[in-house]
Design brief:
The complex is a heterodimer. Chain A is mainly α. Chain A has 9 helices and no strands. Chain A has one domain (5-223). Chain A is 83% helix and 0% strand. Chain A is globular, with a radius of gyration of 18 Å. The relative contact order of chain A is 0.15. Chain B contains 7 helices and 9 strands. Chain B has helices at residues 42-50, 71-77, 93-104, 110-118, 134-146, 164-179, 191-194, and strands at 2-13, 16-26, 31-35, 57-64, 67-68, 78-81, 152-156, 183-187, 199-202. In chain B, the strands form 2 sheets. A 5-stranded parallel β-sheet of chain B has the order 6-7-8-3-9, sandwiched between helices. A 4-stranded antiparallel β-sheet of chain B has the order 2-1-4-5, covered by helices on one side. Chain B is globular and about 45 Å long. The relative contact order of chain B is 0.21. Classes of the chains: A mainly alpha, B alpha/beta. At the A-B interface, α1 and α5 of A face α2 and α3 of B.
Chain lengths: 224, 204
């Protein structure tokens, strides 16, 4: 009986997708939060024209808060429903982390796909380097998913989960927020990809470091 | 073959000492009943054996063929059933067992069907676990605990919510594991379950 980490990771991912398709606990909160926030921001700005810097910040603030609202669900729902015990007994920790990470990445992908067209409708961008915007969003989403998955695993063991998740996640997410806003600002200013290399490098480094650190630390978080 | 050696085991929760200097050695074929009043540490003892809790002091050594079980072997060789064990309510019985077989690296397909038949859930395998009665959920949990044919079966109040036929399944599971050369540890306050044991310890 040889276990493949890829197979066990995909098993966790498929299980989460199947559960989510029936329970809709994470997708609902992420999408509702982002749509409501974006709509509220759009109405509060009224007819004022805003420049690329502010538009980039708005987009990432909505992304960040939607992530804070929903990305902890993967682990929190396991502890709230009591299934965490069965998962700990049966599944390899690395596969649990990677499966949950891929699930959160999927959620952010869905969020990006819905948020960007909506953003363009409510806070239209005159012209943009869409390729650079996509690079920034994909790399930022990987970093967001890597860090929030580990933090969610820590928070899931605690009593006041929602508050603790926000308090722990925010300082860890500052680098990805700064680099993501920087890359998006340059994308909205139609600058070439080369101009955003410092931000892209920071996003790649952040995602790599967070994934590596999470894989090293998760075993301890999961067992204790 | 599997062996379990518990030496000077203690476990505290904050200031409260729950297990105090527990010593026991278990050998192939043993069926140990763990008795004690509510709060005496029966569930804590079983959870420590399952690797879900660390001892405050003392050691728990689980060996298979003379070598300590590693994490991967523990997921297959140790079965655990307790009231706080929950499987996925939004998945069907078959989907649950298929998921757990996949992450444990167990055979799927026909083997899953055999597990479902063994716990008397044939015909209900496509029902969501959340729609099952409490007794049928307990059977689904028994399927989770025994699907890998464990060498060490840890049972905490296993007959809770089970009818006569369900109790017979628990008895069959304990006898099967012991006859295969495995070990059963059963924590209970139920006199009917005491009869399943060949040895006992009483926690104060």
């Amino acid at each position: 009986m040889k276990l493949s980490w890829l197979d066990t990771t995909l098993a966790v991912l498929v299980k989460d997708l199947r559960t989510e398709a029936r329970a809709r606990s994470a997708v609902g909160s992420v999408l509702l939060f982002s749509v409501v926030t974006l709509t509220a921001v759009s109405y509060s700005l009224g007819g004022f024209a805003i420049d690329a810097d502010i538009q980039a910040s708005m987009l990432w603030i909505v992304l960040l808060f939607a992530a804070l609202a929903g990305l902890s669900r993967g682990f929190v729902s396991e502890t709230e429903s009591g299934t965490v015990l069965a998962l700990r007994l049966a599944a390899p920790p690395t596969s649990v982390y990677l499966g949950k990470f891929l699930f959160n990445l999927f959620l952010l992908g869905v969020l990006d796909l819905i948020l960007i067209p909506l953003f363009q409708i409510l806070l239209p961008v005159a012209s943009a380097n869409w390729g650079l915007l996509m690079i920034g969003l994909v790399l930022g989403s990987i970093g967001l998913a890597a860090s929030t998955t580990l933090i969610a695993a820590i928070v899931a063991q605690a009593g006041v989960k929602g508050t603790l998740f926000t308090v722990l996640a925010f300082p860890v997410l500052v680098p990805v927020l700064v680099a993501g806003i920087g890359a998006t600002r340059k994308a909205f200013a139609s600058e070439p990809v080369a101009a955003a290399m410092p931000e892209i490098q920071l996003l790649v480094s952040y995602a790599g470091v967070m994934l590596a650190a999470s894989l090293l630390l998760f075993d301890h978080v999961w067992k204790d | 073959m599997i062996n379990v050696k518990v030496d000077n085991l203690t476990r505290s929760f904050g200031e409260r000492l729950v297990l105090d200097d527990v010593n026991v050695e278990l050998h192939p074929g043993d069926r140990l009943v763990v008795k004690g009043h509510n709060g005496s540490g029966k569930s804590t003892f079983v959870r420590i054996l399952a690797g879900l809790l660390r001892p405050s002091s003392g050691t728990v050594l689980i060996e298979y063929d003379g070598k300590p079980l590693d994490e991967a072997e523990r997921r297959i060789r140790v079965g655990y059933l307790s009231p706080d064990l929950v499987i996925y309510e939004h998945l069907t019985v078959a989907e649950n067992l298929d998921f757990f077989a996949r992450v444990r690296g167990l055979p799927r397909g026909d083997a899953l069907g055999a597990t479902i038949r063994r716990v008397g859930l044939e015909g209900r395998e496509d029902d969501l676990v959340g729609t099952l009665s409490t007794g049928l959920r307990q059977r689904a949990k028994l399927a989770f605990s025994t699907q890998a044919e464990p060498d060490l079966l840890l049972l905490d109040e296993p007959s809770a919510n089970l009818d006569g036929a369900g109790r017979a399944l628990i008895e069959e599971a304990t006898v099967t594991v012991a006859e295969r050369g495995g070990i059963v540890v059963l924590a209970s306050n139920d006199p009917l379950e005491f009869a399943l044991g060949t040895r006992e310890i009483v926690l104060a």
